[in-house]
TrEMBL record:
<keyword id="KW-0963">Cytoplasm</keyword>
<dbReference type="InterPro" id="IPR018252">
    <property type="entry name" value="Annexin_repeat_CS"/>
</dbReference>
<comment type="similarity">
    <text>Belongs to the annexin family.</text>
</comment>
<dbReference type="InterPro" id="IPR037104">
    <property type="entry name" value="Annexin_sf"/>
</dbReference>
<keyword id="KW-0106">Calcium</keyword>
<dbReference type="InterPro" id="IPR001464">
    <property type="entry name" value="Annexin"/>
</dbReference>
<dbReference type="GO" id="GO:0042470">
    <property type="term" value="C:melanosome"/>
</dbReference>
<protein>
    <recommendedName>
        <fullName>Annexin</fullName>
    </recommendedName>
</protein>
<dbReference type="Pfam" id="PF00191">
    <property type="entry name" value="Annexin"/>
</dbReference>
<dbReference type="GO" id="GO:0005544">
    <property type="term" value="F:calcium-dependent phospholipid binding"/>
</dbReference>
<dbReference type="InterPro" id="IPR018502">
    <property type="entry name" value="Annexin_repeat"/>
</dbReference>
<dbReference type="InterPro" id="IPR002393">
    <property type="entry name" value="ANX6"/>
</dbReference>
<comment type="function">
    <text>May associate with CD21. May regulate the release of Ca(2+) from intracellular stores.</text>
</comment>
<keyword id="KW-0677">Repeat</keyword>
<keyword id="KW-0007">Acetylation</keyword>
<keyword id="KW-0041">Annexin</keyword>
<dbReference type="GO" id="GO:0005509">
    <property type="term" value="F:calcium ion binding"/>
</dbReference>
Amino acid sequence: MAKPAQGAKYRGSIHDFPGFDPNQDAEALYTAMKGFGSDKEAILDIITSRSNRQRQEVCQSYKSLYGKDLIADLKYELTGKFERLIVGLMRPPAYCDAKEIKDAISGIGTDEKCLIEILASRTNEQMHQLVAAYKDAYERDLEADIIGDTSGHFQKMLVVLLQGTREEDDVVSEDLVQQDVQDLYEAGELKWGTDEAQFIYILGNRSKQHLRLVFDEYLKTTGKPIEASIRGELSGDFEKLMLAVVKCIRSTPEYFAERLFKAMKGLGTRDNTLIRIMVSRSELDMLDIREIFRTKYEKSLYSMIKNDTSGEYKKTLLKLSGGDDDAAGQFFPEAAQVAYQMWELSAVARVELKGTVRPANDFNPDADAKALRKAMKGLGTDEDTIIDIITHRSNVQRQQIRQTFKSHFGRDLMTDLKSEISGDLARLILGLMMPPAHYDAKQLKKAMEGAGTDEKALIEILATRTNAEIRAINEAYKEDYHKSLEDALSSDTSGHFRRILISLATGHREEGGENLDQAQEDAQVAAEILEIADTPSGDKTSLETRFMTILCTRSYPHLRRVFQEFIKMTNYDVEHTIKKEMSGDVRDAFVAIVQSVKNKPLFFADKLYKSMKGAGTDEKTLTRIMVSRSEIDLLNIRREFIEKYDKSLHQAIEGDTSGDFLKALLALCGGED
């Protein structure tokens, strides 16, 4: 069994069995496989309750007692996925990895995902054991076999990783960090083409601690995470391998949590991936993986396995997962710390926000106005021209076109567009033609008019706009509808939800930095109102008001510090605690504020994904976000989308919309990632 580093806490889900007797286990397994049929319950119960070291002793005892090979007997008695899982558990870890790699490169085609997963995630010691096990099991050289089955830069990086020579010194040179940042920047972003050798050398050899600092400095220096540069500069399996290396450097458990989620999401299950990870991590970091899984995907690993598998196969996987973590309905303390670490860097670093729509070069409003008039004149409408012009001009330029159109033709461009196009395309194009504040004002008005209220739209807009944007929306609302936004919100909402929206709609959020003493006090208020403080004080009504004030008026940098202090104080993540302790529109509003503070582009990426997920498309949400973020941070949203959902925003839109609406959305999207 792999032992944790000195002083580290063991985080595997499988432990040494107390009172272990290998002869007794060997006899029980023999009995379970004797005669007609086999007692699968007894087999899985014994094997999942013993550590790998103990299983090897059982194998030896079995051979001594019966002169038979236990693994061969298990293969004979069991079938399918259950057999693969049990046999995987019976092999020593290095031999299990060796078998996976041998299968990945045998026969026609190569399972590159398997190669990437194993070679990107193993430590130096594990890599050395793997090479030796492969040689012992197959009498072949692993490096030679990988070279024979792969090519190019992908092959070179695999070979580098296979050496198991990554530096392990925790002492980091600041000068070398800066030099590596510069070398990576010059090898990619600043170079015509890419110097892949620099990426291979630095990412394949530097220590984890060193590379984490390199990634931090790279973000500060270039305004983009290293992952974005890798996606922009590399391609194919080489790109996937380098991204996997970066993920494992940042957090190996998070990498495996993501792999497990993708193995089970959607139709069908990638059982080979599921088996490989559950076996290989069960005595290393399975408890960390399941905590991150729950935090990141808002469901437990246990419940997802339970819903996605069946029979003895399911029972075995559930035991390997460490048991039912849904039973108590509680969040894990370690998961809260991981939750913070997962977004702390992006929150603190000054990431440059970029839209996908920029001012057109050589802009000529006169020519654009004439082209639009021609596109709408006579029989039929040239939608392609309309889409091309409007999606490739900034909002300021579109306002100039509107003015020029009226000066030239004595006609209102918006009115003409309304009469020529319809449906989803009309809502998108007309939205783009409106000044941003007037567009948001209109979306708020529509959310409150008629029967029922679109609370989600109210929350999305008011929880994410800056003070300047909120003030502009208030002015636009008054100008367009002759009523204050505050009065409209007061008439259409009620209770705590109304108070939250009105507070946000004042646009009085503080804009300074963090105050540690105040942050600790604010975190205490949050802990008390969320009922997890050790010593609650004050009446609840007063605490509710203070909590609302904190979330609605404190600056983003300060709130990030509050969230960190909350974790230190309670061992809980504030977002998940709000979801657990609160309900309804109040909960949704507070969660939106917290998510926006943590990572606003990710908040919008999630909204876009949900608008296109499942049967039917929420075109209103899709249109609203694509219009409102196209000149602000849609490029950042695209990056978060592909990072979280393993598909590009371009692909999602392409698969979920059609016709001219699709063309316009793809143009706003700014191309394929």
